[in-house]
Amino acid sequence: MDLFKKIYAYDTAKKAKEAGYYPYFHELTSKQDTVVHMEGREVIMIGSNNYLGLTSHPEVIQAAVDATLKYGTGVSGSRFLNGTLNLHKEFETELAEFLNKEDCTIFSTGFQSNLGIISAIAGRNDIIFSDKENHASIYDGTRLSYAEVIRFEHADMKDLEEKLAKAPENKGKLIITDGVFSMSGEIAKLPEIVSLAKKYGARVMVDDAHGLGVMGARGRGTAEHFGLEKEVDIIMGTFSKSLASLGGYVAASHEVVDYIRHNSRPYIFSAAIPAANAAAALQALRILKREPERVQALHDIAEYMRQGLKSKGLKIKDSKTPIVPIYTYMPIRTMVACNQLFEQGVYVNPVIPPATPIGECLIRTSYTATHTREQIDQAIDRISEVLTSLEGFNE
Predict the structure, then answer these.
(1) Which residue in the list 113, 130, 182, 242 is annotated as catalytic?
(2) CA within 20 to 30 Å of 132's CA: 39, 68, 154, 335, which one?
(3) Contact between 205 and 233 (Cβ < 8 Å)
(4) Residue 89 is among the residues annotated as catalytic for this protein
């Protein structure tokens, strides 16, 4: 059988384009900001993860420019060999200190971070307990690890405990959870997870990609939010969201981080992030430390949006984070709504199967500390108009 048979048979995207409801790959022609230019339109952006509004901050941009002039456009090698810059080490030291961890190392992407961390620390004699709604990179990282993987029902602590209780005592145990779940905006039940980990001798890893800069009084993430920074063994995160760049990190004890540095294949065999990415993320971190009020501004604008959507009678997932999903129920209705909103100057993201069950599709909206209430008011009105016009559309 021809390997490409399934490729030639794939026509889902083609059908969506022909029917006019394909909602993906819109082209930006401006900086990522609260208002962007896309395909000749000025669009209110409520579909990015630019939580602190730092992607267009002049200090962050200048840091990237200065680093490029000093170090060039790339490092041409892995961290393990010729690719470690003093800038990388400076950033790791500051990030570890910010997160109240002994050590930190950075990866080329957030996705690669989970692949590299999980596959390094878990092996054939270990068991990984993973929330069923964890990010795709966690799923792939567990596959690379060769550990036994046991998935527990989303945020179901009874199910997690039942599975932990059945695990052999002579197996290493790792519980992995998103800190903030990227589609729903839900916050992990971290206090209960930590308690169960202590009871059953497990370690805890939190993917805080959507928690850094978002949760906690100073934006240190989900562990800070719950006062559990010392109890969480491993914190992973990204630079592509609050830190306005590209890359990822692991923060933990010195022993754990050093083991990953010397045993993680995705870390050892990938080129290090360019200086521009590291410098931009470092400057964004420094702004977060200097201006922690951005975290509260982010939550204030998200709450303003939640209340506005409710006032229009729209059903939302009532999260406590800057991710505000709006129910649209059916896949084609969701994509049609996203396209109509784009045409009316509001960018949002469709969430359809397999990311959500059929019948529970969503429009995922997310907010930035620098959004204005005027921008949010416009978005609320247009979302309400579009979704009201599609009532009864059940595909």
Answers:
(1) 182
(2) 335
(3) yes
(4) no
